[in-house]
Design brief:
The complex is a heterodimer of chains A (883) and B (113). With 883 residues, chain A is an alpha+beta fold. Chain A has 28 helices and 24 strands. Chain A has four domains: 67 residues, no CATH class; 193 residues, no CATH class; 192 residues, no CATH class; 209 residues, no CATH class. In chain A, strands 1, 2, 3, 4, 5, 6, 7, 8, 10, 11 and 12 form an eleven-stranded mixed sheet that branches. In chain A, strands 16-17-22-19-21-20 form a six-stranded mixed barrel. About 1% of the residues of chain A have low confidence. In chain B, 30% of the residues are buried. The chains are: A alpha+beta (883), B alpha+beta (113). At the A-B interface, helix 2 and helix 4 of A face helix 2, helix 3 and strand 3 of B.
Amino acid sequence: MQMRSFLEPLFRRDHLEQSMEDEMRFHIEERAADLHRSGLPADEAKRKAQIEFGGKETYKEQCRDAHPLHWVYGFISDLRFGVRMLRRSPGFSLLAILCLTLGIGANAAVFGWIEGTLFRPYPLVSHQERVFVLAGTARGVAGYEPTSWPDLRDFQRNCKLIDSFVAEHIVGTTLSIGDRAQRAVGSLVSANYFDALGIRPVLGRGFQPGEDTGRNAHPIVVISYQLWQERFHGDRSVIGKTQILNGMPHTIVGVAPKGFYGTFVGYAWQFWVPASMQERFDSAGYQLEDRGARWIEGFARLKPGVSVQQAQQEITAVARRLEGDFPDTNRGHGIKLLPLWESPFNATDSMLPTLKITALVVFFVLIIACANVSNLLLVRAFARRHELAVRIAVGAGRRRLIKQLLTESLVLAGIALVGAILVAHWCRNLLVLLVPPRSGPIFMKGDLDWRVLALSAGVCLLSILLFGMIPALQTSSLDISGALKCESAGVIGTRGKSRLRSALILLQVALSFVLLVGAGLLLKSVQRIRNTSPGFSRDGVLVTGLNLVAANYEPQRAKAFQNELLDRVQGLAGVESAAYARVVPFSYLGYSSTPIAVDGYPAAPDEQPAADYDEVSEGFFSTVGIPLVVGRDFTRADDENALPVAIVNEAMAAQYWRGADPVGMRLQMKGRAMRVIGVAKNAKYQNMLETLSPFFYVPLRQNPSSDIGLLVRTRQDPATMGPAIAREVHVLDGDVAPSGILTMREQISRQTLTQLIAGRFLGIFGGLALLLATIGLYGVMSYTVSQSARELGLRAALGAAPSHLLRLVMSRGLALIGLGLAIGLAVALATTRLFGYLLWGVSPHDPASFGSALAIIGIASMAACFFPAWRATRIDPLRALRD
Amino acid sequence: MADTSDILPGTLDMLILKAVSLGSLHGYGVLLRIQQISAGAFEVEQGALYPALYRLEQRGMLDAEWGISENNRRAKYYRLTRKGEKHLQQQAKNWNRLSLAIATVLNATAEES
């Protein structure tokens, strides 16, 4: 009973209202009856009873306030009223909701992306906040390295604060099921992988302790749900069957749950094998007992309540001990725990800068959208000031009015929030656009979990404060008598409010300018990078990868396969030349680096000459388009039976032979002597941003590898040439599949993708911001003109020329724009430096980018000012003065 | 709207509780009872009674129930709860002590001080 009456106003409002009305009417009627009995005429008695009772509505309001939840009650009625008000001006409401949806939605989408790729990148993995990346460090070397297997085991044994050390290493294989061979991406993992990450296979089991030990001792595999569905048609009897992986039958022991894609940002893994099978999957040979072989990309999962600092201290202490115990392999090596979003081992490191910029940009967009809605509300509040003044006059408190106006803002933002979440939901898959083209299934998704939703709601509230507070507070300075009388007029109209609106316009113009400058700078960087020659051909070259380790080829058989494939590809119609390289320029693979010795080059005492090199086949230089300056190319005869030879680049010739012709000279790497037979032009090797450094090439035939890249020079369309190449591979061996075939241009553009995406984002949002700002400016100018129609008409009647009126109105708008641009300029000059390495070959103060942003905003805002000003010149003096 | 300015603030609640303590009443009845027992000493704008009644009901001092009035009309009747009764006793005690003290102060003469 008590509870019911407590919650009554929420659910039985009409009932409460009714009973209040009944009770008070009963009182008045009883009183009237008593008065009537004492001799007053009936109508006189009724009037007197009403007077004695006092203001019924006021007392009703006080009765409502007596309820502890009365504010909910008030809120609900405000809400109803707010919705009614919004429905009454649908144009305004739609525009405001659109602006807010855009602002909040862009933020929600970006939060979702950040959550899905950086903070909680691995679906289904529990407690990701306790999982850290093991990033190996080497003294005096920048960047991070993987970890060795024996080190990882020692860490697992000695660290007490860490639950488990998980090893992973991405590997590829060729899956041959039925008559279809297909490249698959998976991982070598430690046996604790599934247990430590809290992943329970939907079918069969994960790995058991000990299955990651013993050389090739446990040929078992867990397959992904997707692979199970696609290639095994969801057959439950798949458990226990064998599948050939890299030439060895592996028993399928489990199927990972749906929605688990492994632990690598960018790729969806299709299978997992225990680390004991490393030799099978890695062309580098058996490494499980080699402490110097660092190939594991690992995670540490901290025990609950352990801080990352404590864990780091413990790991560092163990790493120190290992340095002492195994100086040959471990001196100078340590481990740093990095949060998942700083992982150096996957696509995260290229996502981070892009997402940072994007987050900043969408925040700008939110502010601009809020400024715009705020402006709309101000204009509307002005139109409604008559209504508001009436409400104050009949006794509404100012606090009550502010509450009412904020509730209306809340309705707007609430609708926008729903829209925003829909926007974020639609955008969650767009993240893939940020990833460079690659072979294999991509997994990269935004995630809309409760954190994202909560954050979005927070942004929504923030936006209400940003856009709703100012107009609401304005009402407290409302001049009632003035508002109840007619409009006051004048060019400046109501100065205070228009100053506020002007400030909001300033903000929008300034922020749009900053966004446009940023977009201009980034897009110009992309242009610069794309137009700078990498030193080899960008067009007419196709590249692909051919991993024969994965297909279980012996080195001798691999060589035969490679020779035959090269002949076949060169025989294809439309192919000009073809060649192999262990590392294709601009691929993700790293070049080998080696200490070198050059006869006659005196190294400084503390200098160890070193250079990167690549193993390439004959015809590589003509295929990729790097000219030889002097000497000859490698030939088929430069094989393991011939004298070791090398071709150096110009930078190397200049540094070690100081301008003398190096052809015929001796070059030693790792104690092996080679004869220099040629000098190649300098080129970029890994990316466009690298600096020129010594580099040399050795013949692939003298340094064979079973995992190489194929380059094909052709004038034909890649769309037809790609499948032709794949067909040749398939004819030779149905169990071998080339990796995704890219054009060299695509290969290069992967390196500039971060700039391109960031630039496009800035461009899109900058344009959007400009549009909003232009609409806002137009609104303010039109409003000013309509408010000052009387004065403008008077001036016209007194003989002011139309051109004079035009100038009068325009000058006001232009002053605003000018000031906004000046602020924007100052902010942009101070902040574009933050782009850092994203700017390439472009100064952060590039005049062209600043100039074009200035021009674009100038023209757009001139247009926004011109039309209202033009209207001002057409005001009919007679009508303006009469109205 | 100086509705309760004629009586001391806070005393209206006490008067209502006292009125209702003599038997359950509807709102108009409360008014009549107060006028009767105070012999018309307290003039209240009649509507002001209701916010006070609602407040007391919310605080659990009063129970309300719809019933039938003496002339067969539906009316809301208020009844004192245990809590209300205790509160009334407490209030009455405080009030008596206070009024005694004030009376003492106001009646003080030079010889006594």
